Amino acid sequence: MMTPDFFLEIEKKTLSPYACLTSASKGREKPEESSPVRTAYQRDRDRIIHSKSFRRLMHKTQVFLSPVDEHYRTRMTHTLEVTQIARIIARALRLNEDLTEAIGLGHDLGHTPFGHAGETALRSCFNPAFHHARQSVRVVDRIENDGAGLNLTYEVRDGILNHSGDAVAETLEGRIVKFADRIAYINSDIDDAIRGGILSLSDIPADLLEILGEGYSERINRMVLSVVEGSSDKNEIAMTEPIGDATERLRAFLTDRVYINSAAKVEEHKAKDLLVSLYGYYVERPDELPPLYRKIAEEDGKETAVADFISCMTDRYAVDLFRRLFVPDVWRGGAV
Prior knowledge:
Layout: H1 4-14, H2 40-49, H3 52-56, H4 75-92, H5 97-106, H6 115-125, H7 132-143, H8 154-161, H9 172-195, H10 206-212, H11 216-231, H12 243-260, H13 268-284, H14 291-300, H15 302-311, H16 315-326
């Protein structure tokens, strides 16, 4: 029968000297016996895939709120795209693909309903410092598994926490996910914006298309190859120039044309108001929270518990709950 040492030896023989070996992991908060057939990072991946928060991603907004067309991305499809891109890069660099995969699958578990509009709503009514990356770690530590958490390894939690903004993960595998996240959402958001009639390919600056490519797959391929080339045999993850510069300029273009000033955003104020209303309702009535969140309210405070409850909602659950709480039933009595 195979032993844990068998897999650890394979990693030592095949992975880059810059890879995060499972044998070098800082471990879990609660020590566990090793599996005879899976490394610690493989177990983390499996725990995330089987979690409730992962399943809910299929009904959470990526960019477009409640689209009728089922081909628009959701938070779930975005997560799968990020993970696929990250694994390709990790494999090419001979880094730890299992660790990269676990981080990619878990990086958005704490994202709010209605995408970044929900994040903005919780910043306004709960805490200005609320951020989906920190909430994702809270989900795997404090909320999943009926409050017991998933007991993930330090490196996976670090990668989830530091996948966004100016944060930098301790491992190269975590840094790969940060690049993969940007590559995925930049290109999928262009694809969805064109499908929604918000953009046409001709709207994108011609010099960016010349550098990065006109087609969806072509752009992803060039960006991925740029990361691989810029990171090979180095203890860092970086894009080469001019691909890196063009990618950042394309992201800035999308921020202005899609993320802020587009027709896709005209309904966002309604989503924000909806979540702020739900927050206010349950802060005043914490006894109406589900049992897990009532327990969190007792231990961490009602405001935190309500924010946890809301961040775990899917779009449609939030809408249905709002209707039940705030929209009166139609009177169906007889004629006056």
